[in-house]
Design brief:
Helices cover 57% and strands 14% of the residues. It is α+β, with helices and mostly antiparallel strands and 165 residues long. A four-stranded antiparallel beta sheet has the order 3-2-1-4, with helices on both faces. A hairpin with a 5-residue loop joins strand 2 and strand 3. The relative contact order is 0.13.
Length: 165
């Protein structure tokens, strides 16, 4: 009886192990698809936001336009200088930028205004944001980013570790 119980437990453990292996294989597939999708989206965002490929106005109308009021309320509540959102669908990219006075700039105009805000830091900032935006888009979330512009000029007598009194 003792041997039969041991055999049954070992047999059950073997099937649990096999089931775990099979389920893990199947659970890897969706993660792999999301990773591939993220890489494709990241490539499309780089092409549009860094290399100047044309963005699609119809995609803005389809996915972004309906959220303008909501994002504007968040912009005001957070006291930001602007908020921009980026989306990708079937290989096309669209972007919207909203200012505190509720001016809405779309695609290339939005990109130009963001370049104006960030000046020489546009490329560096986008290099940091694009992987995060691609992950959000791969997860089915519109990538929305609030921007607060900070003047980086240091006081004339400022030194590391000292405060100006």
């Amino acid at each position: 009886m003792f041997n039969e119980a041991r055999w049954a437990i070992a047999h059950l453990a073997f099937f649990i192990h096999i089931d775990t292996i099979v389920n893990n294989k199947h659970s890897e597939l969706p993660r792999l698809k999301v990773l591939m999708k993220k890489q494709q989206i990241e490539s499309r965002l780089r092409t549009a936001l860094l290399h100047g490929e044309k963005m699609e106005y119809s995609l803005y109308e389809y996915e972004l336009q309906e959220h303008i009021d909501y994002w504007h309320k968040g912009l005001i509540a957070d006291r930001e200088d602007c908020v921009f959102a980026v989306t990708e669908n079937t290989g096309h990219v669209a972007m919207v930028l909203i200012l505190p006075d509720k001016t809405v700039l779309v695609n290339e105009d939005a990109k130009a205004k963001l370049i104006e805000f960030w000046k020489a830091n546009y490329r560096n900032n986008m290099e940091r944001f694009i992987p995060v935006m691609a992950q959000e888009l791969a997860d089915g979330i519109i990538a929305v980013t609030g921007v607060k512009v900070v003047d980086r000029k240091l006081p004339k007598k400022w030194r590391w570790g000292q405060t100006n009194n």
